[in-house]
Amino acid sequence: MKKSVIMLSLAAAMATGFTVTSCSSDDDFGVTAKQNGVLTLNVTGEGITAYKGINIEITELNTGAVIKQTLEPNVTTFSFDLPYGSYKITANGVVIANSEEARAAGVGQTDITSAVTNLTIPLFVKKFHEDFIIEEVFFTGIKTPDNKNYNSSRYFKITNNTNKVLFADQLIIGQSEFLTTDDKSPTPYNPNLSFAVKGVMVLPGTGNQYPVQPGDFIVIADNAINHKQNTSTAYDLHNADFEFPSTNPALGQVDNPSVPNAEVIYTQMQFNMFFLHNRGFESYVIARFPTGENKDSFLQKFKYDYTYQNSAGTVTSKSTYAIPNSWIIDAENNSVPTKFIHTLTSAGMDSGWASVGATDNDANRYGKSVRRKTSGTLSNGKNLYMDTNNSTNDFTKDAVPSLKDGIDHNK
């Protein structure tokens, strides 16, 4: 699922109306005509030889109104009659690029206020079924029977969505520096090049120590113990594949010596914590070190320094890290409907977002996860999971966690 850039040109031609007020005694006074325009989308892409169907989604940012249209195969132009407004446009579909079937995605934003608007969107391409995917993230935690927060037993479930054996050795898990619910307008910032992180952990292994069979999965738990021994509503994760326990004494986590630890190579938190946002305002990626790179070179070479204007009106400078997009094999954005502002990944990695809960601090979010939908079976009969680069389509929101009754690789 490595990414390469293709351009999607969207030429928006607006045929504009205007407000009319009639003062004739024969007419109704104050009748107005809504201002509309015709948005014509032109789809082009370098290296694309065929279009197997591009899905267009146009969202008016002020009202939330959405228009969807799927273009017929090899149709590259379509027109929409739209009111004036501010629009986000997403294109996502299957193409033939460089003689291979690939999924292409791009996103752009424009204000429709004039007769003609031209928009060019960089479209990123991801090949099908090359590596691991994020199948599930359980970030909400649970409530105890006496309604207290239990801040352990969260996990990532990473799945081999291919027909070949993959190795989890040195797999990278990255946690977003920014939130999907807040736009700081940082400078510089380009999610089409890299993914800014506030936490990074790396799985152990020398290259072939941790094989994962086609359709099978690995679990990376914040603490690989039977949490049911602490509270009946928690989950038994004692046989997780990896864990990342915190040394924070307030959490009381105990390292399970029989489960290998993921190494937290960077965090902005005390006690070596890699702590998931329990309202789901973060995004996550999984990545691999390319040849010649490792955790040490990452920390030496991939610093990300940026500035933003804070609430007091002054400029804040900050230094963190960023994972190059060329390293990333899968990504997943999260948010909640009432707070969502933007995704934190390039559209080619994830043009949508999943969620748990309907509002900020939704009391019903606990004990639920985001889980990827199935789309068929692999050659060995295991689940094949949906992977269209759009978490809105690919994930079930408010899902029942798959590990609620323990970890079972035979399910």
Helix content: under 10%
Number of domains: 2
Mean pLDDT: 87
Our estimate of the beta-strand percent is 35-45%
Number of helices: 2
H/E element sequence = EEEEEEEEEEEEEEEEEEEEHEEEEEEEHE
Biggest sheet record: 8 strands, mixed
The radius of gyration over CA amounts to: 23 Å
Determine the structural class based on helices, strands and strand pairing.
Answer: mainly beta
Low-confidence stretches: 1-32
Number of strands: 28
Taking the alpha carbons of the first and last residues, their distance comes to: 26 Å
Structural shape: globular
What is the topological layout?
Blueprint: E1 3-13, E2 36-42, E3 48-60, E4 66-70, E5 77-83, E6 85-97, E7 100-112, E8 116-127, E9 132-138, E10 142-143, E11 149-150, E12 155-160, E13 166-167, E14 172-176, E15 194-202, E16 211-212, E17 217-221, E18 242-243, E19 263-267, E20 283-287, H1 295-301, E21 303-309, E22 315-324, E23 328-335, E24 354-355, E25 369-372, E26 374-377, E27 383-385, H2 391-394, E28 395-399
Parallel strand pairs: 17-18, 23-24
Antiparallel strand pairs: 1-8, 2-5, 3-4, 3-6, 6-7, 7-8, 9-12, 9-25, 10-11, 12-17, 13-16, 14-15, 14-20, 15-19, 15-22, 20-23, 21-22, 25-28, 26-27
